[in-house]
Description:
The chain is mainly alpha-helical. The chain has three helices and no strands. The radius of gyration is 16 Å and the shape is flat. It starts with a helix and ends with a helix.
Amino acid sequence: xxxxxxxxxxxxxxxxxxxxxxxxxxxxxxxxxxxxxxxxxxxxxxxxxxxxxxxxxxxxxxxxxxxxxxxxxxxxxxxxx
Length: 81
């Protein structure tokens, strides 16, 4: 699973470097806007779902989220992690 997360982080870093070279605005402003929009979307999703986010109970769940998503990707492509 760590190889998959490392690959994903590498792709994200490459995207940021490409964005830095071609974006009309500073990358930190673009990333900040995406970050805020993603959190708003997450809370809207939890409201629709009717469940509070797990990290309100324990902050460790903020670290578990990316690993959980990667395990779902591995299940989708049929690999064991």
